[in-house]
Amino acid sequence: MGAEMPSALFPTHKRVDLSFERGEGAYLFGSDGQKYLDFFSGIAVTGLGHAHPHLVATACRYADRVWHISNNFRIPEQERLAERLAAHSFADNVYFCSTGLEAAEGAIKMARRAQYTAGSPDKVNIITVQGAFHGRSLAGLAATNNAQYLEGFGPRTPGFSQVPFNDLKALEAALGADTAAVMLEPIQGEGGIRRTPLDYLRAVRALCDRTGTLLIFDEVQCGMGRSGRLFAYEWSNIAPDIMMLAKGLGGGFVIGAILATKEISACMVPGTHGSTFGGNPFATAIANAVLDIMIEPSFLAHVRDMSTLLRAGLANLVKKYGHVFSEVRGVGLLVGLKCCIPNNQCVAAAREMGLLTHVAGDNVLRLMPPLIVEPTHISEALEMLDAVAMRVSEETASA
Question: Structure pTM?
Answer without folding.
Answer: 0.96
